[in-house]
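Sequence in, structure out.
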Amino acid sequence: MVEHLFIISIILYLVGALFALCLFKWQMVGNYISFVFAAIASCFGIATAVTVLFSGSTIRLDFQLFLPTIIKYNFLLDSLSSYFILVISVISFVASIYSIGYTRLYVNKRDVRFLGFTYNLFLMAMLLVVSANNAFVFMIVWELMTLVSFFLVIFEHENPTTRKAGLVYIVMAHIGSGLLAIAFFILLAYGGSFSFDSFRDAAAQIPAVYKNIVFFLIIFGFGIKAGIFPLHLWLPMAHPAAPSNISMIMSGVMIKTAIYGFIRFYFEFLTPCPPWWGVIILIIGATSAILGILYALMERDIKTLLAYSSVENIGIILIGIGLSMIFKSYNQMALSSLAMIAGLYHLFNHAVFKCLLFGCAGNIYYSTHTKNIEELGGLIKRMQITAPLFLIGALSISAIPPLNGFISEWFIFQSLLNGFNIPSVIIKIITIICGAIVALTGALVATCFVKAFGISFLAMPRSKHAEKAKEVPVVMLVSMGILAALCVFMGLFPAKIMMTINHVNTQILGTNIVKALTSYDWLQMNIVRTNFTELSPKSATVFGLILFGITFGALTLIRPKFIRKFYETWTCGIAPESRLEYTATAFTKPFKVVFSNLYRPRLEVSTTYSVPNFFVKSIAYVGEITPIFERYLYNPVSNFVLKISDKARLIHAGNIHLYLAYIFITLLILIMFFR
């Protein structure tokens, strides 16, 4: 039964892709049908995941095609893969509904059939990635996912920036694929086959040296797709370049397939993990978190800002996974379960609120045709539904209770605090530092989204784009409303999600904490009690509610004593205008000064005079930051590769006789040394 649901989901994605191509005379009709099929397929994916998770069963799908004696197609539906199928399918369902309205933006501008075709293949490929049970099959569907997402990134290929983003993405993605392939071949040498089952069986037989090699290959291979620092270069380029409905999928769930790879490899194929592995993952996560939000803070392009914040949230997720690995290595399984729950819960939370924020950014672009928040302003009066939806997403990502982002980040904090239970002094110190970084990150996230919401939606319009803005089609608002409702639901009733994650814990950690979870509500979340801390956000939540009640009551009692008076805004005798508003650049100037060693700001001021050297006509101010990773890491490497390529090009003379000589010399060398 379950396998039938999964197969039907895959078939519906294929049918949806074909519909987008076949109805060539009615492009929009075919495209709409393809998105409807994608939404229905996502429902079957949700049904598959829920059935597997709550039944505790493991479903295997084994079949052969084309070359039965060589290629075996193995797929596995267990708790881990099903949890990721659930996340992918929920976001895919909402994004598919959103796409029905958003694709109207491209009517009569480009062929939208290709968008519907690649969109369905993209969703199908992600489901196959997290369910593959064979390294060969995994690489096939991984490359399929990469290839179709590349075509989606360059959908607006007439833009040179978009083409550059696509090129960077596809090059880095294939570097990651190459590293993964090497890791698979090392595991093949000890497992005897490409089957993941053989990898699990051979885990204890792999020497420590080769385990360490595979560990670093996996970090770089999956790290590129996840967008961890400093392997993030493609992410803030590709996400803004892609259509907003695609950005929702890429940021919401595609980069999570790399997290799936981390967990599958480290907890199943390479177990047991030494503590320093978890420490490295922890440090990578903390670095990505702080640097991601620092760069997001400087951005004026709203989609680039959201892309950098995805790097930050991937870092938060990796902190949870790294802590789980550390606790497991010291046999502290309850705390390991807590950290894993925190990481996986934040993974789902990030998928929801980031999809919501990217959708709202798409609404803004749909209505104003600009992504530059400096050109916005006053949208709260013109987009009266999008504004509160964006606010909910901003509050969620800022971990404001009682929304969903608060719950997972609270447990991340609690996991870090319980680093005191680790015997190693060095690891204790590292967890303290990481805790401070996470705290600073939380404050910077709130600042970043105060800027994003305030500059975009409040005050007065700063351009004709903003003045002419109006609300987007209802179907786009409905999909965003679903995500906003999920942000609230997952914050108020986290037990439902934690019960689901518990099944994953039972599989990969062998720890079942279902008894502690059954009594949950949003105020009582005691998973683990230690001498150092009680792992519950109820105190903070209750304190916040009491403080809110006191404040509200005081204001209510005081209010009748005052007479409300309204006055015009005083602007020194000048009529209020948009030039007097606080800009995003001005908002972030203090941070640019404080973190100047990181940003390396460049300031250019050009002045135009109506009378030379006396009367100023205009002043142009340009303040940019230096992308240090691109300048000092990627550019030198790319320049070196280009130089080597130019040298190597000399041997490609196009002369058949020269090529035959190369073959002859190679054969002589082989005979001499390997006879």
